[in-house]
């Protein structure tokens, strides 16, 4: 057994392959529970969109499609970088893995900063579904209630992913976690979930009413 493999192994596993399979199985169970959470919100959006088509269409035209589209491109690029980083880590390509993970961190932070600017613009335009909400169409408050809930929940998941990627990058850079550790592949699976959720949110929140 090589030194890198021995360093990556954790009890009770005697094989890195079995350890990786167990880690991936565990994270898939976790991702399934997260998918159910977002599925409930998406179902609520679909039902209310059917009940209030005019209000949801009018609200969709109020979202900022420039911010939404740029952030979609940012997140898709970060997902590509995450795939490169996890595969480079598996192959032992330290420099490429660390550079790819640094790119993921940069793009993830860019997404959150842009989202912060977008939320600030929404507040200035009185698109918070509370006192002073400026849209009168039936269902508009429901749209923006779901909009704020889903985008905030997504941002929290992305921030959690950034924390994990940053921690793994720091350990990989210091050499305290070998690149052969399954943690890099597990982090990649989580990051891709964040990406997939946004791919579902983007057409619902930004393209509805503009077709």
TrEMBL record:
Annotated compartments: Cell membrane; Membrane
Location (main, coarse): membrane
Segments passing through the bilayer: 25-45, 65-84, 96-114, 146-168, 189-208
Highest taxon of source: Bacteria
Presence of the UniProt keyword Transmembrane helix in the record: yes
GO biological process: aerobic electron transport chain
Keywords: Membrane, Transmembrane, Transmembrane helix
One GO cellular component term noted in the UniProt record for this chain: plasma membrane
Membrane topology, as annotated: Multi-pass membrane protein
GO molecular function: cytochrome-c oxidase activity
Domain Heme-copper oxidase subunit III family profile: 1-210
PANTHER family: CYTOCHROME C OXIDASE SUBUNIT III, NITRIC OXIDE REDUCTASE SUBUNIT E
Similarity comment text for this entry: Belongs to the cytochrome c oxidase subunit 3 family.
Protein name: Cytochrome c oxidase subunit 3
């Amino acid at each position: 057994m090589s030194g890198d493999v021995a360093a990556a192994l954790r009890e009770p596993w005697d094989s890195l392959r079995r350890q990786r399979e167990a880690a991936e199985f565990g994270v898939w169970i976790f991702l399934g529970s997260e998918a159910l959470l977002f599925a409930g919100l998406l179902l609520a959006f679909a039902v209310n969109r059917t009940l209030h088509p005019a209000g949801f269409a009018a609200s969709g035209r109020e979202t900022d499609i420039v911010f939404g589209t740029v952030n979609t491109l940012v997140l898709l690029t970060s997902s590509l970088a995450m795939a490169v980083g996890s595969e480079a880590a598996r192959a032992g390509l330290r420099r490429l893995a660390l550079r790819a993970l640094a790119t993921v961190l940069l793009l993830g932070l860019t997404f959150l900063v842009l989202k912060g600017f977008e939320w600030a613009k929404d507040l200035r335009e009185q698109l918070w579904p509370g006192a002073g909400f400026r849209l009168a169409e039936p269902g508009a408050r429901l749209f923006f209630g779901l909009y704020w809930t889903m985008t905030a929940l997504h941002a929290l998941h992305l921030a959690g992913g950034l924390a994990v990627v940053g921690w793994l990058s720091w350990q990989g850079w210091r050499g305290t976690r070998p690149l052969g550790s399954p943690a890099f592949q597990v982090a990649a699976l989580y990051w891709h979930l964040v990406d997939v959720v946004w791919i579902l949110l983007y057409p619902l929140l930004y393209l509805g009413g503009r077709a």
